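Onboarding guide, step 5: your first structure request.
Type a short instruction followed by the sequence, for example:

Predict the 3D structure of this protein.
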Amino acid sequence: MRMILLGPPGAGKGTQAARLVARYNIPQLSTGDMLRAAMAAGTPVGLAAKELVESGKLVPDDVVVGIIRDRIEEKDAENGFILDGFPRTIAQADALGEMLAEKGVALDAVIELRVDQSKLVDRIMKRAEEAKAAGQPVRKDDDPEVFKDRLDAFNRDTAIVVPYYEKAGLLKVIDGMQSIDAVTQAIELELSALDE
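The system replies with structure tokens like these:
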């Protein structure tokens, strides 16, 4: 099973990815995690990325694509993977398609967790307030202003890949405002229909 999870920050992609990893015994490939690992390992791609990140710049498509290309070659990704945080642009989506075609494989599905973004902001603000009230530190990405910036970046940059995959006939839209278990069941239903 080769799939992409799409949706804005806070939509529940991480939670659902963990369940899919357990269900299909395939790795979740988060570009953020892979970039951090490559930077920590001091790989050539990681060093290039580190320099950009530390100067506040975005990591260019060719570097991100290189990291993905290396990662899907690893043994644990032989039977599939879940991409989270990639592709973020049409150029990355094209590069992914070419990369998979070279390997003689294709994506099985693109799952979009569609959510009411105004309620997402409220959810994150509530979580931040609860952390403060409990005397706990607020996660940096739970800061309402940081979260709004991340949401704006998603809407500006990443949301454009949704119509790309819809046109390709791969997009499955799931109501991400349901309970966690209901979202899992809806995803399972969509994925089991692929086998029929």
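Each response can be followed by summary notes, for example: The radius of gyration is 17 Å.
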